[in-house]
């Protein structure tokens, strides 16, 4: 009899190079027709989940293999795959979620359970403010959950959920959603090791839909049974990375030299600093207020020139820089540094006593992680100027608030601050000289390569001839994106001890991860990215050198190439919307979206091969986690697959 277990991770990797990207999964989201069928299949899912190894969270690909095998053994159709995966996942995390007290659980409800007509609820960026009028099941579920102590959010698929968890407000999630939403949410939440259970809706039409209400109530009433954490989790390290930028932590690790130039503790700038210093919470504060049953508008204004009135001009640069440093972002780079250090010292921060082990990470390591983000924020200030982008983190870019010259200076200040964090010691922050030199050398090398890549992009953007070879686009990607991953990983590993044997593996892994990430970033530009500054097709209008552009020029005929070059010329009089339409049509004609995803697969396979060969199991696990979370492919339906005619550069 089959165990229902997935193959080993190395075997799983080998299958990934040729796997389907699942860009069209609508045929895999059927729901068993009757309650009896659903209950029978759910029981099977629980049996299979009980046999799985619970030490590490399953990836979505591994979970899919388990679900496919289960359906094949039961002679059930492939269309039930999505529903089965959700129920296996819920069963996998059931005991772990029981160990979380209800007041530390989040109950997530979809607004589509409401009655479509006559619903009195108000909506804002955090979802629906249910009036609990009793007209639908939302109020009933919410009442049960709140009686038990849950925090409740009615906002299907809301991106604030992971931020709420990382912000430290809750430790587990139970929810109701359609299979479309659950498919999008399953990767990052589960991979991070966050206990999560869900009941799928019976349909995905988002209008007066239904759910197995007894299942939902049973899920909400999951009893609290205190127990030791079994499955590894990166949540505490994520929280530590975000916590670096809280006001108290930031000022302790990087003491302001000018006191932020604010003698008056009640000045407007202090008030703004208080808001922005909570950037670990970021846009979550309003949602948390909603979770607590309150409705309040959250204002998170960036520092503006009027806030600096009466401030010592010499201190103004520091004030602007600290405000921007504490603002927004995913803090993925400092997380990588902290997680790499933890991996090389045993990986204990991901285990049952993870919170205490994370708290024990030395300040010297935290300062190294902070420096990585400082360099990143400096590059963003400069990039926004070079690309003439108007917004960053939902606020006007620094150069739009203070002018180009001041913004350049703020970016330069952040670079200096980044080096200063590593070049000198503090009390209780003893780091030997050789380690400091190695870290500074690594960061300097990353800084130089980033500048080379950005310089190549700017020269191409300003050139009259916009022709570009795919290999050249990939070289720019390797220079612009990979060094940050490399520096973050190396810093954490080096702070833990000798890293000589890992220099080359880290470089190869980071190069392939960075290139694949940048390709995905360009693909996201075509579907928009609400979490940042992007709008559909902005790279074409801005004249940036992308792989998509290079592949299109390589695979289009002469006439179409000239059309593409014309719409990117500086003197093109065609309206932006029409230019984007033309570019999209030509991109689809050339098959660039499929080819780009094929290249993502190639670079992902190379990154995973590096991970396969690592001797350190905790570091190998971290590399896999980074691949699975960083390389999140967009949902972008494309026509026929076209065979690549270029070779990806050897890493």
From TrEMBL:
One of its GO terms (molecular function) is metal ion binding. GO terms for biological process: isoprenoid biosynthetic process. It comes from the Bacteria. Residues 16-26 have a biased composition (Basic residues). Pfam families: DUF116, polyprenyl_synt. CDD domains: Trans_IPPS_HT. InterPro entries: DUF116 (IPR002829), Isoprenoid_synthase_dom_sf (IPR008949), Polyprenyl_synt (IPR000092). The keyword Lyase does not apply. This is Geranylgeranyl pyrophosphate synthase. Gene3D superfamilies: Farnesyl Diphosphate Synthase. Residues 1-31 are annotated as: Disordered. Keywords: Magnesium, Metal-binding, Transferase. Its cofactor is Mg(2+). It comes from Aporhodopirellula rubra. Belongs to the FPP/GGPP synthase family.
């Amino acid at each position: 009899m089959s165990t229902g277990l997935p193959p080993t991770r190395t075997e799983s990797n080998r299958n990934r190079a040729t796997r389907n990207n699942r860009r069209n999964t609508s045929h895999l989201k059927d729901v068993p027709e009757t309650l009896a069928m659903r209950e029978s299949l759910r029981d099977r899912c629980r049996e299979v989940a009980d046999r799985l190894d619970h030490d590490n969270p399953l990836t979505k690909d591994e979970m899919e293999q388990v679900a496919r095998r289960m359906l094949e053994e039961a002679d059930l159709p492939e269309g039930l795959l999505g529903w089965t995966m959700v129920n296996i996942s819920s069963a996998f995390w059931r005991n772990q979620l029981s160990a979380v007290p209800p007041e530390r659980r989040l109950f997530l409800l979809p607004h589509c359970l409401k009655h479509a007509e006559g619903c009195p609820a108000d909506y804002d960026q955090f979802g629906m403010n249910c009036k609990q009028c009793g007209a639908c099941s939302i109020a009933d579920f919410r009442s049960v959950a709140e009686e038990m102590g849950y925090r409740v959010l009615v906002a299907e698929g809301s991106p604030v959920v992971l931020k709420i968890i990382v912000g430290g407000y809750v430790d587990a999630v139970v929810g109701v959603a359609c299979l479309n939403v659950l498919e999008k949410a399953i990767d990052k939440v589960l991979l991070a090791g966050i206990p999560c259970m869900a009941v799928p809706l019976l349909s995905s039409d988002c209008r007066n839909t239904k759910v197995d209400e007894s299942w939902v109530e049973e899920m909400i009433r999951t009893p609290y049974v205190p127990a030791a954490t079994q499955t590894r989790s990166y949540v505490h390290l994520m929280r530590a990375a975000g916590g670096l930028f809280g006001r108290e932590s930031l000022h302790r690790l990087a003491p302001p030299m000018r006191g932020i130039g604010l003698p008056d503790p009640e000045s407007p700038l202090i008030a703004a600093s208080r808001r922005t210093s909570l950037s670990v919470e970021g846009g979550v504060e309003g949602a948390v207020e909603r979770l607590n049953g309150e409705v309040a508008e959250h204002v998170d204004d960036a520092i503006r020139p009027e806030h600096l009135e009466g401030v010592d001009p010499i201190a103004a640069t520091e004030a602007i820089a600290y405000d921007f440093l504490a603002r927004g972002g995913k803090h993925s780079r400092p997380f990588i540094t902290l997680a790499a250090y933890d991996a090389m010292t045993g990986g204990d921060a991901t285990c049952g006593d993870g919170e205490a082990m994370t708290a024990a990470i030395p300040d010297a390591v935290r300062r190294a992680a902070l420096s990585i983000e400082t360099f990143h924020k400096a590059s963003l200030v400069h990039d926004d100027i070079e690309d003439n982008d108007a917004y960053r983190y939902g606020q006007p870019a620094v150069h739009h608030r203070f002018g180009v010259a001041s913004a350049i200076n703020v970016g330069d200040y952040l670079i200096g601050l980044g080096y200063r964090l590593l070049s000198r010691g503090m009390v209780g922050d003893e780091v030997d000289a050789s380690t400091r030199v190695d870290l500074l050398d690594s960061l300097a090398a990353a800084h130089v390569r980033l500048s080379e890549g950005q310089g190549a992009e700017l020269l191409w953007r300003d050139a009259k001839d916009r022709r570009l070879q795919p290999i050249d686009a990939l070289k720019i990607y390797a220079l612009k994106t990979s060094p940050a991953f490399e520096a973050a990983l190396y810093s954490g590993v080096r702070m833990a001890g000798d890293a000589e044997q890992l220099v080359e593996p880290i470089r190869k892994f980071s190069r392939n991860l960075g290139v694949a990430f940048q390709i995905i970033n360009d693909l996201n530009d075509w579907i928009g990215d609400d979490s940042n500054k992007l709008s559909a097709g902005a790279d074409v209008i801005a004249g940036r050198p992308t792989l998509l552009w290079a592949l299109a020029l390589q695979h289009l005929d002469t006439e179409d190439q000239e059309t593409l070059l014309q719409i990117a010329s500086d003197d093109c009089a065609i309206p932006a919307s029409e230019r984007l339409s033309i570019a999209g049509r030509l991109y689809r004609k050339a098959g660039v979206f499929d080819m780009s995803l094929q290249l993502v697969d190639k670079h992902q396979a190379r990154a995973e091969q590096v991970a396969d060969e690592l001797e350190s199991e905790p570091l190998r696990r971290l590399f896999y986690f980074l691949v699975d979370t960083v390389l999140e492919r967009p949902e972008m339906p494309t026509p026929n697959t076209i065979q690549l005619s270029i070779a990806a550069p050897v890493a």
